[in-house]
Write a structure and sequence with these properties.
By secondary structure, the protein is α/β, with parallel strands linked by helices. It has a single domain, classed as Transcription Regulator spoIIAA. The chain has four helices and five strands.
Length: 113
């Protein structure tokens, strides 16, 4: 399992966040804090690129879902892009696939706001 990778960049009034590695029990608190910090700093329209995610556990899903709730309360939203098939299967199996707007690439997701 690889360590959490996280980078964010502003795209106008939107924020593109690229994450990678394994979103397991060890990485989930780090992801939760970094996403939460970005939202606390004013990020509202967030695209979360999942292309480099190797694995996602329920703890990783929980971090994304709780931060989406936080973003929505602040008038924003997290949208997902570039989700690998293996990650999409986990979202589907756990019934979370319909909680998010999902796009095939960053450009589509950024334009969707």
């Amino acid at each position: 399992m690889s360590a959490l990778q996280y980078s964010s960049s502003k795209k106008g009034d939107k924020v593109l966040i690229k994450i990678g590695g394994s979103l397991d029990l060890d990485a989930a608190p780090k992801l939760n804090k970094k996403l939460g910090d970005d939202i606390d700093k004013g990020a509202k329209k967030i695209v979360l690129n999942l292309a480099d995610v190797d694995y996602i556990a329920s703890a990783g899903l929980g971090a994304i879902i709780s931060n989406n709730t936080k973003a929505v309360k602040g008038g924003g939203e997290i949208r997902l892009s570039s989700m690998p098939e293996k990650v999409a299967k986990i979202f589907t199996l756990l019934g979370f696939i319909n909680l998010f707007k999902i796009y095939t690439n960053d450009e589509e997701a950024l334009k969707s706001f």
